[in-house]
Design goal:
This protein has 8 helices and 10 strands. It has helices spanning 13-24, 46-56, 71-76, 83-92, 109-112, 126-135, 155-162, 201-207; strands at residues 2-5, 29-32, 37-41, 66-67, 97-102, 117-121, 139-143, 168-171, 182-185, 192-195. The longest helix is centred in the first third of the chain and has 12 residues, at 13-24. It is of the alpha/beta class.
């Protein structure tokens, strides 16, 4: 396992390119987000997705969320976005709001357990967005910890949790920690809260 220090504000392009190359070859990368450290993989690669479940000891029936560089990447990973999804994305992205979209066929079914929908957001963190941008497609972003264990807010804790199960750790310093992202399904005219989190649901309803 390799560790690279990166700036959380202005990550070196070479570091992001190296990490993206690992992902595109089917590897696993730990990286910082605006909440906690995440475990990345290419959601279009079945072997990589299987590797995420093995690394975390995560039951296959638990879907994996994605992060994207911008809404254009989200559009590439979805079968269209509802007007309400677009409105909430414009209001809260980049930030800790995860939205449910209908998954494009290019996404491995194991990412969403065959249900056809995937959770995605644009994080407020230069490393996370930059890594997705280098890959050219949204990336898997599940917490960098063993299934059932506490999520981690530092690269050192991620290394201790993941060990040699991953290929690279991008160390961007401590993350803010705290609550995970709020998860909302806005594919219809009425938003539905699926997981409470960093953005209170009343704020989401106000934006509607």
């Amino acid at each position: 396992m390799e560790t690279l220090r990166v700036s959380s504000i202005d990550p070196a392009p070479a570091a992001l390119a190296h990490a993206a190359d690992i992902l595109l070859r089917g590897g696993l990368v730990v990286f910082p987000t605006d909440t906690l450290y995440g475990l990345a993989a290419d959601p279009r690669n079945a072997d990589a997705v299987s590797g995420v479940y093995r690394a975390k000891g995560r039951p296959p029936a638990q879907p994996l969320p994605l992060v994207a560089a911008d809404i254009r990447q989200v559009e590439a990973a979805a079968l269209g976005l509802s007007p309400l999804t677009r409105r909430l994305a414009a209001r809260f992205w980049p930030g800790p709001l995860t939205l449910i979209v209908d998954a494009a066929p290019s996404i491995v079914a194991a990412v969403h357990d065959g249900v056809g929908t995937v959770a995605v957001r644009v994080p407020d963190h230069a490393v996370a967005r930059g890594l997705a941008a280098r890959v050219g497609f949204p990336i898997v972003s599940t917490s960098a910890n063993l299934s059932g264990a506490p999520a981690v807010a530092t690269a050192d804790d991620a290394v201790q949790a993941m060990g040699d199960r991953v290929d690279l750790v991008l160390d961007g310093g401590p993350t803010t920690g705290g609550e995970p992202s709020t998860v909302v399904d806005a594919r219809t005219d009425v938003p539905r809260l699926l997981r409470a989190g960093a953005i209170p649901f009343p704020r989401v309803l106000e934006a509607v």
